[in-house]
Design goal:
single chain, 222 residues, mainly beta, four-stranded antiparallel β-sheet, four-stranded mixed β-sheet, 23% strand
Length: 222
């Protein structure tokens, strides 16, 4: 037993889950399953979403990132240690969904914002140009993604683990769903998936969340 313990690395797990591609998560967290429901005329119906988005984005505030590295190139940020830097993720990249100019994140105007992020995988090095693409089958609904095209810069990879990379900030993509400003009830299903990187999967019959996520938004009349 003592001999086995000597082979363990306190900084990087020796045995990790055999997951080569990340899943996707959305914020704010839906109340049930992957469904959001709110009414523009009832602030209480979406105040919880706003509060959670503000809490989630707090580490992304400019002041909170002052000790992070302002990475200017867009290549994989491979590091040898012993110190591991983390790149800044400017909140301005989320544009209309940053909460800076619109503290309601679009909910009060019928244009709710949903944040999408990839799960962390230690050592992951995406190939190509990874993006998160969001779409809906409803032709009357307009989707906007920030950064443009759902771009995920390579400079945020690889991730070296919670202990070595304590200050690491995950790159985010925001999708803004324009349901319109009328009080007419609307319901839309949105699918977001990873594209542009040949070593990141977005389809697996055994894991429906691998590389993709599907959520529904319902805007009620009251």
């Amino acid at each position: 037993m003592w001999a086995m313990l000597q082979t363990l690395n306190d900084e990087v797990p020796k045995y990790r889950d055999q997951i080569s591609s990340p899943g996707l998560m959305v914020f704010p967290k839906p109340v049930s399953a992957l469904e959001y429901s709110f009414s523009m005329s009832n602030r209480e119906s979406y105040q919880g979403y706003i509060d959670e988005l503000k809490k989630f984005l707090k580490p992304y505030a400019t002041e909170e990132q002052k000790n992070l590295k302002p990475c200017h190139n867009d290549m994989l940020f491979v590091q040898e240690g012993p110190v591991y830097d983390a790149c800044q993720f400017p909140i301005a990249l989320l544009e209309a969904c940053s909460g800076v100019n619109d503290p309601d994140f679009g909910y009060s105007s019928g244009r709710p914002c949903i944040l999408v992020k990839m799960n962390r995988i230690i050592g992951l090095k995406p190939l190509g140009r990874p993006m998160i693409d969001c779409s809906t089958k409803d032709e009357n609904i307009t989707l906007s993604t920030y950064p443009p095209n759902g771009d995920i810069a390579l400079k945020y990879f690889p991730y070296y683990g919670k202990k070595l990379h304590a200050s690491y900030l995950q790159p985010l993509v925001a999708v803004q769903v324009d349901l319109g400003a009328s009080s007419t009830p609307k319901e839309v299903t949105v699918e977001c998936k990873i594209i542009g990187s040949p070593n990141l999967k977005n389809h697996d019959d055994r894991d429906k969340f691998l590389g993709r996520v599907v959520f529904k938004i319902t805007m009620r009349a009251k």
